[in-house]
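Objective 1.3, modelling of assemblies. Example input:
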Amino acid sequence: MTAVDPVTADPDQPVIEVTDLRMRYGSEDVLTGVDFTARRGEVLALLGPNGAGKTTTIEILEGFRMRSAGHVRVLGVDPAHGGEEWRARLGVVLQSWRDHGKWRVRALLEHFGVYYRPYSTGAVKRPWPVDDLLEAVGLTAQAGQRVSQLSGGQRRRLDVAIGIVGRPELLFLDEPTVGFDPQARREFHDLVHRLSDMDETTILLTTHDLDEAEKLADRIVILAGGRIIADGSADALSRRMSTEAEVKWSRHGEHFVHSTLDATGFVRRLFAEHGEDVADLEVRRATLEETYMTMVQRFEQGRAESAVADFQEATR
Amino acid sequence: MNRTWTPYRAGLLRGLLEFRYFVTSAAEMTGALFPSLIALVVMIFLRDTDVDSSVVSLGAMTMPSLIGMNIAFGGLMNVLGILATEREDGTLLRAKAIPGGMTGYLVGVVVLTALSTVMTLLVMMVPALTLFDGVGLNGLGGTLTLLWVLTVGLVATMPMGAALGSLISSPRLVGLLMLPITGLIAVSGIFYPVTALPGWVQGIAQVFPFYWLGLGTRSAMLPDAMVAVEIGQSWRHLETLAVLGGWAVAGMLLAPLLLRRMARRESGSAVAARRERAMQSAVR
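Predicted structure (tokens):
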């Protein structure tokens, strides 16, 4: 076995490559053909309502779950057959609960670091020195504390520290801020920004919160109904959204609503046809957030198919 | 540093550190030693109770058996309990996310279990040797016997503990497993000579490691005359080695398969689901 040096590895090769990924539990199709890629250094958010298959997708990429079908490459390797060397280049941030409660923070990070030492390469010194790591996640003051004594926010930062102790080329974060108060959430977002700035670390995170995806990610991939229904930067997605507008008006006291891609043309025709009768005219462009929220609500009401279809219509 | 051996080294350090955390935790030490201390007090009361005009008291006869039982119990239940608990709390998943982490984790469990079993054994040995007439290490031979019985006993029971632990989905099931194991111990000649039991019960007892470990420690620590109350009036060292060896081989064949199966199924959502269940049953 020889170490793959990330510098000499093809920088244009996608870090994550997913084509027609399918997952079926019994007779239930959870993923029905997922496609996306992540480039080196990119922060990618996998966004979708609860139950959309985000966790399933990320666990397949982490090599923790076997897929039913499809082509998946993570750092050029099929995660179903990823060896220890491949594992050493990944970081997985797990949600701790009460594991290693007796351990002291520094001892735990030093222990996990030992496993990465033989995977050091000329370009990447592994593991991350514990003092630097503690400082990066803001746990220097807690270094001597037992893990069980940490606050919820501190524990999550320790989870991140464990995830990055091997200086991964690719980091997975599954719903990293669930259960956070706004303060802890902001601190966590700062931490992710620092991580993506520091090295060329590629980050894949899942979230059901569009706001979080917009804040953290270079690119958002929206997963719903078992497939990717939108893919692009937050800006690009909202620009695409804004082509859709909602026109409201009334005629003889009766109220009307119409969604259209060509608001100007529609209003011109409306006046041409009804002239003076048109009243209470209102033209509103839907924001990305509104369109997304509508989709999520309908998805959660069990109308997944129509929700996804309409969303795709809106973002086309 | 070498990629093959790093996980073993990390696991050794892990086991040592976990052992240190264990002995410095008053609650855990009490939990681990309390049953042995109770048994010790009972045996001290039985110091003067004789069995059928034998050369040693019932208390003296039982002390070595208890030490043997502790080896089996420590090997089996410690590993089983640790695996069941640490699978639920996500320790295992963390190990899985690290290169060589599973190997290191298992080595750590083995080291911790071996050390804590030896510690319990020593805690029992000191009063056994000092307070009971007729109990002693029978020279170099007895010491060597005790050492090999301890080693083979751990090798026979730890893989089985790992195999059973990887089948159990919740630490709350460990208590359920205690029932049949307690039953087995009751018929394994630990508290009373097995020869006093019906033949078919003796047959069952001789399938499992508890009886053989008790026999092994008795042979190392009791006067030779006590062989009279054993099956076939013999310490049966070869048979002991054969049966325990059989368990060891079976365990080592079974454990890797079951451990791999268990590890394969670990994922963040599996741990989250278990946490959810544990929280609910804690609230109820």
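The longest helix of chain A spans residues 182-198.
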